[in-house]
Specification:
By secondary structure, this protein is mainly beta. It has one helix spanning about 145-155; strands spanning about 1-5, 5-20, 25-30, 45-55, 65-70, 75-80, 90, 100-110, 115-125, 135-145. The longest helix has 8 residues, at about 145-155.
Length: about 160
């Protein structure tokens, strides 16, 4: 972590577990247009998700939060465990899963990440041949308000 008087930089690595099949999916189709099947990348299909986020790629790794939102990459990372428990990051951008590496923007945050901006580099860590659970690696660089500045304003 880098700190100056008003801003901090925090680097996070986490893993998203995307259950698209099986008994307990975490991704659901809620709408589609009648052209979805003929358009590239299933454009027009609207999916929502509530995915487990862990500190390592294994499903038995410690939970650090949930990634909730839509597959068109309007997401909120809700940190539920650890040092940043109760904080969120708002993520926006295009995430074409067919590309090896992708980049999306951090456009906001709360609590420890108040006034956050930054970016996330993401890649597919594991693609399940059975199509049940894919794992994605996220490397985030977060610029946010220095916690000491936040505390000094409360006094």
């Amino acid at each position: 972590m880098h700190t100056d008087e008003r801003r901090e930089v925090t680097r996070l690595r986490f893993y998203l577990h995307d259950f698209i099949g099986g008994d307990s999916p975490t991704v659901w189709a809620v709408a589609r247009c009648n052209l979805t099947d003929v358009l590239p990348y299933k454009f027009g299909k609207f999916l929502v998700l509530d995915n487990l986020v862990t500190s390592a790629p294994g499903l038995d790794s410690p939970e650090v939060g949930r990634l909730q939102g839509t597959v068109v990459m309007v997401l909120n990372l809700v940190l539920t465990k650890g040092e940043y428990e109760g904080s969120t990051l708002s993520i926006l951008g295009r995430n074409p899963l067919t590309h090896e590496a992708r980049e999306v923007s951090i456009v906001g945050g709360t609590a420890a990440f108040r006034m956050a901006t930054g970016y996330i580099l993401t890649s597919t860590y594991f693609k399940d041949p059975a199509g049940v659970c894919n794992v994605y690696e996220y490397d985030a660089v977060v610029y946010h308000t220095n916690r000491n500045v936040l505390l000094s304003h409360r006094r």
